[in-house]
Each structure stands twice: as C-alpha cells, then as structure tokens.
Amino acid sequence: MVFYRGHLLICGGTGCVSSGCKDIIIAFQEELRKKKLDEEIKIVETGCHGLCEMGPLVILHPESVFYCRVEVKDVQEIVDEHLMKGRPVSRLFFTEPLSLDKVPKYQEIGFYRKQQRIALRNCGFIDPENFNEYLACDGYAALEKMLSEMTPEEVTNVVKAAGLRGRGGGGFSTGTKWELCAKATSIKKYIICNADEGDPGAFMDRSLLEGDPHNVLEGMMIAAYAIGADEGYLYIRAEYPLAIKRTQTAISRAEELGLLGKNILGSNFSFTLKIKEGAGAFVCGEETALIASIEGRRGMPRSRPPFPVVKGLFGKPTVINNVETFANVPQIILHGADKFAAVGTERSKGTKVFALTGKLRNTGLVEVPMGITMREIIYDIGGGTFEGKKFKAVQIGGPSGGCLPEDRLDLPIDYDSLVQAGAMMGSGGLVVLDDESCIVDVARYFLSFTRSESCGKCTPCREGTMRLLEILERICAGQGVPEDIAKVEKLAYIIKASALCGLGQTAPNPILSTLRYFRHEYEAHIHDKKCPAGVCQALFDYRIDDRICNGCTICAKICPVGAISGERKQAHQLDIVKCIKCGICLERCPKNAIFKE
Amino acid sequence: MALEQVKQEKCTEFISDDMDHKLEALLLKNEKSPEILIFVLQQAQNIYGYLPEAVLLRISEALDVSKAKVYGVVTFYSQFHLKPRGRNIIRACQGTACHVRGVSRIIGKIKEEIGVNVGETTEDLRFTFEAVACIGACGLAPVIMINSDTHGRLTADKVPAILSLYE
Predict the structure, then answer these.
(1) Do A224 and A334 lie in a common domain?
(2) What CATH number is associated with residue A288?
(3) Of A61, A248, A530, B32, which is least surrounded by CB within 10 A?
(4) Does residue A357 belong to the interface with chain B, where contact is any CB pair within 8 Å?
(5) Looking at residue A429, which CATH number applies to its domain?
(6) How far apart are CA A299 and CA B63, in angstroms?
(7) Which among A327, A423, A411, A407 has a CA at the least distance from the CA of A367?
(8) How do beta strands A190-195 and A318-322 pair?
(9) B133·A206 Cβ contact <8 A
C-alpha cells in the first residue's frame, strides 16, 4: 500500500464541474509531476462539498486548508508555496461575508461550523468512484452487522425507534412504512429509491448520489432485508447524467464483490438493483405515478388506498423512500437508534439537508440538525443577504411549500412547525428572497410550474391550477380587480381539498402562504397598480434622475430600442413609450441615476 | 415491416439505414413487454436524435403496445421529441433560484441571438432552445446548459461568447 503525506481533494460535483474543476485537476496533475510530488500528494476527485457558490473548491489534507474559486493560474502557486514550502496561499482562503475575515480551515468556516453531517458525511471526502474509500469510512459495516446479528424485525424496530421520517417531503415514519410492507404477505416485494428530484431549487439527491452512491445502495439493501424484498429500482432523473453514471459504477462494483446478488456475505439474503431513468415529469416524484412510470406507462398517480406498501410495483408490496432517507439508514443501524434520535426535536429526529439558494451570499448544500432556526441557516451558514439588500422572505419546500417572513425566522425547523406556519419541509429547497423579489411574481412562478407539470388526470388540479394562474397573471399585469383575492383563496382551498395526489393538494400552498404573510403586496398590485419590488413589468416605468445623470451617454448607446436621448454631459431623457423595460440601462449606469417608478 | 412502408411514404433526410439497424438490434435484444417501453423509447431517441413516426410505429409493433399508448407515453414525458432536434441543445433553467436571480433576461438574450423562441429549433438545426424546470445547479444561478456543459453565474452580455462555442 502506498502512503501519501497529503491529499488534495478537488470537488467534482456538478457545480464545480461547471466552474471548471476538470481543468484544475489536470493542472495539478501536471504540476505535481513536474515537481516530482506525485508520489507524495494524492489527488482525489470528490463529490460535492456544498459550497457551490465558491467553486471550484480545493481542500488540502491533513491540514484541511480550504481554497475557493481556484483557477488554473493559481495551481502553480499552491504547489510551490503550500506543498513545497508549507506556506498556505492566503489570498485563496474563504472570506467570511460579514466579518470579512480570511478563514484558512474548512472546519472554521461559518458555512460548515453549524452543520452536522450524517447523510452527507462522506460527500466531498471520498472518491465516489472508488469502493475502497467508502469501505474505509465504515462502508457496508452496517450491512455486515445486520446480516450477522439482526433479524428483519429488529432492523425495522431500530429504524422506527430512531424516529426517522421520510426526507422526500411528506415526513411519514420510515420504520412504520417498512413495518407495514413487511407484514404484507407476498413472495415478491420491491424497494424503490425515489431520485426523481424535480423540485426547482433542490439538488440534495443529486449530490448524495454523485458524492456517496454506495451509502444510498447500502441503505436500500438494509430496507430490502427488513421488508423481505429481493429486487430494487433506483428511479433517477435523466437530467442528472453524472449521478446516473456514478450510481451505475457503484452497483457494478458491489455486484463484482458479491454485495449485490445471491446470498450476500454468505447469508440467505439476496438482492439485485437496477437503475431506471426518469423521462422528465415532475409528477413522477409522487409514488404511485413513479410506479406507473417504471411499469412503462404515463406517470399518472392513482387514488390510494391501496397504498404501495400493500399493492405497489407490478401489483406487489413496495417500499418507496427518498435518496436522503436511505442515506441516513446505515448510520442508524451501525450506531443504534438512540444516537440518531439524540439529534433533532421531539417529533423530528436527526438532520435535514437543505439546498440553500437565492439572494444570499453562501449558496449551496447544507445539512443541519432538525430544530435549528431559519435565522441560523440564513445568517450564520448562508452569510445573509447581499450588501444593502433587505431580507424579505424565505421560500421553503418548493412548489408545495410556502414563504415565511422575517418574524418567523426564529421558528425551530421541523416537519410539524413548518406545516403550522403554512409552509412545508418538502424536499428541502430554501430560496431566500430580498426586497427586489416580488412575492406575487414568486407565487405566479410556482403556479406556472405546477400548472405545466399537472398530469391532467383530476379536474381540480388540471383546471384549478390553470384558473389560479390566470388570475395571478392578471394581477401581475396590472389588471387585477378587488374580488380577485377572495376568488383565489376560495379556489385554492377547493383544490387543496379535492385534488387526487400530493402535487395538486399542495399546489396552492405558495399562494396561500403569501396571502397570509404578504397580503399587502397583492393589494398594492391590485389597488395601487404598483409592484413594490419593481419586478412586474407592467407596473413600473424606468426613469432617469436628472439630478444624478451626468450625461455619460452609456445608457443611450446601449438601449436596444433607442428610447434614451440627450446631449453629452447633459442629463438624458427616457421615452417611456418606446421603452421595452429590458433593464439594461439600469444595470449599466455608473451613477445609479436610473430607477424604477 | 411498418418501418419500411412508412419510410417510403414519409422518407425524411435525417434517417439513415445505419440507424434502422441499430433500432432493430435494440428491439431484438429486449423482450416483448410493455414495461420496457420507456427504456426503448429513450434508446431509440439516442439513435435518431428524436422519435420519427415510423420509429414509433415500429416500436409499437415490436413491443405489442398499441399506437395510442406509445403516443400517449411519448407526449407525456418532456424528454421525448417528435420533431428533429438541433445539433446543440440549449436548456435554460427555470428553477426558483434562477428565476429570482434573473434568468428571464438571459432567455431574452438567447432569443435575440439565435432568433427562435423557447421550444423551437433554428432552421439550420444549429440550436434547439428549451426551458427546463431545474438543472440542480442552483448555487450557480442563473444557469443554462448547452448539451452537457453547464454555464453558470451568467449575465446577458456573456451569452454571445458562450453560444459561439457551439457550431
């Protein structure tokens, strides 16, 4: 075995790949070879570290020095200074957004300090395509422990006692689901991993499969043993090619090693796994629709009961869990229910992965204990909103969730508190909105999403979301009438009560929660014909402040329709009849003389 | 053979014999069962680049699934396409993060540059322009994907240079 004095972990998640990490890897390989360090320092391409905003990320172990936004031209300096002379390159350190301190070490960065990683524990630390690295991190130890010491009932009981709840959104007790399926009598049963992550603004499932696929496979094997299934499917979105590739690599390797197949580790337990690629339909995240899709049909949900645990894939009892749910399972089996249940709140145990995005400084993937407040996530981990921008709301739970205002930020987050506040855990997308985001526009955005993803089977969802969207579009276009708010509310409650599946039942949530906390914005659009955030184009005009404008002519030159005129060094005029409101003048004005009114 | 007949009637310049051989091999390899329909359609689309009518008829026959069902599945999932596609596929992300960080301006710029709307293909088949729900690279919003490359942290003025990378 070869020993290395240092490891260069380079993030190879989708975020960093698009920021150019592949070139960084090649540059490091060349540079290390040139300096004859390639036998001392090992380069590891890992899964996602979470701080995608700052990518490409490079972490140097054993010192755990964290470099961000590394470019090819920085590589030589890192090798010369840090690896040869032991002097870290401080200009590439992470800068704390509030204090502006340079932080050299990974663990000391605010973004990571408050996190607690169970599901993501290996993501970013191991090479996801190298089986041995997973093995070295307690990989398949839970499987071994289970097969040698535990009965299927014991496994179910431990998961139940741990209080693990479904991480895909609904929050149903995982142990109870397994127990119900275990009790169903059938020779054939199935396990399905739902990786049809369709919520706009959520990407934890992708990162888990890209960063630590064996962990998810091990979770699925444990579930299969508990319920007595011998066959499983991973239903992965086709939009995630890297996740599919790495999962397939992991499955093939596990098969070669006898961890999948017949009589696993010499036991009586046999299990095979297949990947099914989704074909692009959001509704397939709903379990009965997902089953229809695996069976080769249109992905339309059906009414329940019978639930899939009784009658699922090909009519057989089936357990469907989300990727993150499975990712938690091996740790529960390995370390016991008590250790897992020690984290979290009374009714929501463990941690939750959130995809933190929108108008804040540190965006990326974070795993935090349940019960943490939204304020801690947004300010301590996310670094708050951009300079000078005021926080307005946080949208949680995607198209099925809702918007929470500033005064709800100290709410401890768990499944139940969020539902009470009118939002929902959903899959864990957190989108921060500042005062330049229009609440009505955000509600309209989610409605247009659910409307186009509605499968069309039931009337409340098919017709109802259409009508809701029409009204919201009217309001955004400045043609809202005072009765609209009451009409929207009534229709929203009817859809909630009568739609067939989760998609339709939760589709009105973004509207209802924004009406609850931001009714005044709807009223401003309807009564005053004003969009306070300056987003709805029909409700504002661009103007030039002639006291500030110094006549630099940039705006006049850049305007695509010639709506701006004026003499050099004289205040310019903007013709609002010609103006198409593209906003480019406002972006380019060096004096900030252009404003919306 | 349905494929032969339809091709004689509606021969399109995009289909080659080589593609048809691949399709036949694919159909031969897979057993006759409705549950592999989506998989077969995905593979067929990889071969042809889209799903021509003749191919759908051939698949319906080979898998013993009614034409109506095949058509139903194809039109249900956004991944399947009934018209020829451009050499380069531009996917503009419509996710929440991209929405609030102003992807609509990027979309406007792309429209202006290539002269077609979302959902359309340029006449020279250089680009197909689509909007997708979420690429899952929210940390880099606003984001577009061209083929399998992700371009993040975009501003409208970066668009022309990026498009020029794809012929």
Answers:
(1) yes
(2) 3.40.50.11540
(3) B32
(4) yes
(5) 3.10.20.600
(6) 19
(7) A327
(8) parallel
(9) no
Q: What chain A residue is nearest to B69 in terms of C-alpha separation?
A: A297
Of A18, A296, A453, nearest to B152 by CB-CB distance is: A18
| H-type alpha helices, A477-583 | 484-498, 502-506, 509-526, 554-558
Check whether residue A356 and residue A337 sit in a common domain: no
Please report which helix (H) or strand (E) contains residue A29, including its range: helix A21-34
Q: Do A498 and A557 belong to one domain?
A: no
From chain B residues 72-111, the ones with a CB under 8 A of any chain A CB are: 72-73, 76-80, 94-97, 99-101, 105, 108
**Interface contact A280, partner B, CB < 8 A:** yes
A454 to chain B, any CB pair closer than 8 A? The answer is no
- Give the one of A279, A296, A395 whose C-beta lies nearest to B34's C-beta: A296
Q: How far is A147 from chain B (nearest CA, A)?
A: 33
Q: How many distinct structural domains can be found in chain A?
A: 5
Query: Long-range contacts: A479-487, Cβ < 8 Å, 24+?
Result: A480/A522, A480/A525, A480/A526, A481/A526, A482/A526, A482/A527, A484/A526, A485/A515, A485/A519, A485/A522, A485/A523, A485/A526
Minimum CA–CA partner of A362 in chain B:
B139
Which positions 172-231 of A are in contact with B (Cβ < 8 Å)? 197-203, 206
Residue B115 has what pLDDT?
Answer: 94
Query: How far does A486 lie from chain B, in Å, by closest CA?
Result: 26
Residues A295 and A215 in one domain: yes
Say which of A53, A200, A294 has its CB closest to residue B139.
Answer: A53
Closest C-alpha among A205, A253, A10 to residue A125:
A10
Question: What distance in Å separates the CA atoms of residue A311 and residue B65, rounded to the nearest whole number?
Answer: 24
Tens-place pLDDT, residues A383-418: 999 877 899 999 998 888 999 999 999 999 999 999
Quick one: closest CA in B to A22, which residue? Answer: B149
Range of the domain at A467: 439-526
In chain A, the residue whose alpha carbon lies closest to the alpha carbon of B147 is A239
Token code pair at residue B58: 């051939």
CATH number for A499: 1.20.1440.230
Report yes or no on A120 lying in a domain: no
Q: Is the pLDDT of residue A129 over 90?
A: yes
Cβ contacts of A534 within 8 Å, gap of 6 or more: A436, A438, A540, A596
Task: Tell me what ipTM this predicted complex has.
Answer: 0.82
Is A43 a domain residue? yes
Contacts of A113 (CB under 8 A, 6+ apart): A107, A380
A429 contacts B96? CB cut-off 8 A: yes
Question: Mind listing the pLDDT tens digit for each residue in A220-269?
Answer: 999 999 999 999 999 998 888 889 999 999 999 999 999 999 999 999 99
